[in-house]
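note to self — DONT lose this again. spent like an hour looking for the file last time. sequence + predicted structure for the chain T wanted, 81 res
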Amino acid sequence: MKLSEFQDKEVINTCDCKKLGSVTDLIFDECKGCIEAIIIPKSGKWCCLFGEGGEYIIPFSCIRKIGPDIILVEIHEEDGK
């Protein structure tokens, strides 16, 4: 799967059914050659100027399902950084 395919999907937390946003970046483990985490900007940001800022860093192990339109993750709010 390409990064562009990840970016087209909406990420939803199954713990609270909250829409987190879309994937903007990935963290790779260069030694293992696998994805360690996905990065999603927190809502409320507009052009990186206004809002709380920050981002969710969701470990790949928290991804429960990747569908054609959405990615389901299981995180508790304190887990997203």
